[in-house]
Please model this.
Amino acid sequence: MTRDHAHPPHADHGDRILPEHQRLSARGMTFRITRWHVGAGSTPLLFLNGLGADADAAAPLLRRITNREVWTLDMPGTGGSPDCFWPYSASSMASAVMDVADQLGHHQLDVAGFSWGGALAQQLTAQFSDRVARLVLMGTTGRFSAADIGWGAIFDRDVVSGAISTLKMPATSPLGFTYQSLAMTGWNNDGLIPNLVERPILVLSATKDHVVPSSYSDDLANLVQAHRHVKISGGHLFPFTKAQQCADEIMAFLAPNTKATTPKKPRKSAAPLPCGNELV
Model:
């Protein structure tokens, strides 16, 4: 394990909290890990970002989630993570992410995922159902094979308004973008639902999301028997453009009075569950 510009968290312009960065390797891939409020709280929150987005883009949201450790990792070829030179599937990436969690000493987790990362969050939660207490799904779907997913970006208010530039989303390498896209090609949560509905689930969606239309979030909320479904005014990047509102919803959902599942006896190994797009 090597540190990358590691420093203790401290205040920056009042409520801004600077994170710790480090690099960890798992299953032949190297990830930049970004952590806020290291060691705080009882159950850490893992955040899985959207296609081509890194920890810096997610910072407006993640730094506002307080009283617990919050961490994320850049996918290969994005942000501070170098390219991976072979393709991966949703299930193999879920295993790599949980290997990173093991290295951080996080056996029990709450998990949140946005867009592409919401699909990975579902895969990880079902695949390691004994280790995930609560699940937050934002602007995502249970079926990335739908023909209209992503194509409406040119009509999305966040994309049109230049929010992507404002959030300083990095340029993903061509290889990184290709492999990240391939990992979810044809992905769906068929067969994962029994392992998803074992825990409290919060679904957040945007009223004017043209990348993952809100109707898909409606269907997802019904399918996973979400404990709470909140619609927020905005476009696809609402977790970042409406960061405080989303952070408030997430913190309220993750409060101690939200009952989590009782951890099961850990399995000796977590065999990958089917996701319809096995590449590795």
User: Anything to note?
Assistant: Residues 1-14, 146-158, 160-164, 261-280 have pLDDT under 50 and may be disordered. The longest helix spans residues 90-103. The two ends are 25 Å apart (CA to CA).
